[in-house]
Write a structure and sequence with these properties.
The complex is a heterodimer of chains A (414) and B (88).
Chain A lengths: L9 E9 L6 H9 L6 E2 L12 E2 L13 H6 L2 H17 L11 E6 L5 H13 L8 H5 L3 H10 L5 E4 L5 H14 L5 E9 L3 H9 L9 H4 L14 E10 H6 L6 E10 L9 H14 L7 E5 L6 H15 L8 E2 L2 H4 L6 H15 L1 E2 L22 E2 L4 E7 L4 E8 L4
Parallel strand pairs in A: 4-5, 4-6, 9-10, 9-13
Antiparallel strand pairs in A: 1-7, 1-8, 2-3, 6-7, 8-14, 11-12, 13-14
Helix pairs in contact in A: 3-6, 7-14, 11-12
Chain B lengths: L3 H13 L20 H15 L5 H4 L5 H17 L6
The chains are: A alpha/beta (414), B mainly alpha (88).
Chain lengths: 414, 88
Amino acid sequence: MQTFNHHNRIVITGLGVVSPLGSTLDTFWDGLINGRNSVGPITLFDPGDFSVKVAAEVKNFDPCMYMDIKRADRTGRCSQFAIAASKMALEHSGLNMSFEDPERIGIVIGTSGMPELLGEQAEIINRKGPNRVDPLVVSKYRASMVPSHVGLEIGAKGINTTVNSACSSGSDALGTALNLLRLQKADVILAGGSGANVTPLAVAATGRIGALSREADPCKASRPFDLNRSGFVYGEGAGMLVLETLEHALKRNACILAELAGAGWSFDAISETAPVPHQRAKAMQLAIQDAGITPRDIDYVNAHGTGTRLNDSIETKALKLVLGGRAFQVPVSSNKSMLGHLGCAAGSVEAVASVLSIINCVAPPTINYDTPDPECDLDYIPNAARETKIYACLSNSFGLGGQNCCLVIRLFEQ
Amino acid sequence: MTDPIEEKLKHVSLKITRKPDAHFDGQTTFKDLDADSLDKVQILVALEEEFDIEIPDDEISDIVNMQGFVEYIRKKLENNMNSPGQQQ
């Protein structure tokens, strides 16, 4: 059993989100509890020949609202989302950088950067030669530049690092930050994930392996746990959270939103693409254990719930292993039914949603749920949000490639 | 009469450094435009595109201001006109 003290306890004091449902906390939350579908036709590129026609895009994003134009020039969409969400989270937390030791403020971001930019530059090398590559391509594409750009913008000088574990990246970054704070490597860490996946290469490559839904109707494309689900829908965005030690938060009279109580990891070790229930269950169990609670304390599950045939049935099996007989009583829902799959940002945007669920005592629905699947027979909060008190929320992320990371987010009690 | 080479150099430099209202003449330096190393590389690549020339780093290391760049570019263009086979 863990011993809790103010250093072990890590609290959440600020939230920031850029998402297909909106880029303020109000619009984001309003969209979630009203079951709004943010999936629509792809507009960021021409999907003419593509078998996939829909995505969940961030609408009307103007980077100059969050940074000066020179920073906007030097950053790709992924960094821009991260900067925007980070600044929102920082403002939300009330943390004043002028009063802080910048070397005790860290940044950990789950992201894969913008690797598709490399393809464009390879073409320029072929056509015009190596000297004509865009000098900004490294600044714009490298995953490591995402937290670097955030650090440059906010003046944080502590740990600054990137995590990449595919779809688990956002959760992985939060769990990594949790442990760094517990080890007192920082007082505050701005942690989360960012992804800008609606690109020709990402859509083509993921579509080719059959993971993306080819449903052209945006209202039917993302349907986790439904019998007729056919894959996930790519989305984009960023979710950033201000995490700090309880001691630091109390010292500055911060408004504490919730507690990041635990994180658990596991690796499937079976295949590049096929998941296994017992390893997913292991990650959940480790997160619950790390939080110092038992499965009986879990009141709501923010599922990974991608809408692929395998993920949803395997995640259901794993939840039964963890929750036992209670599995049929604990509500489970997938934010991805409304947001699409935000890639490296998914875990962190869903963590933001989980905090809001706890604060507001409302669990968002799984929308587009029409036909139950016998292999997915839990309570997925179909189509309408539900008022429910949540003491502890389990938030799942399972990465393509088998990297699993689960978080426990809990109501804060002094 | 305005020098077309200087005009293009001015346009590229002010656009990339995001200083549309900055003073620009032959004595202007990169430092005057708050240009860092990334800005300089971008400006050089843009000039290569604009004038269809190559600008090796070792050929410009002694250039101190925009007038120096104008003269360098003019000489490059003259050399390219005189020896079309040398053009890339």
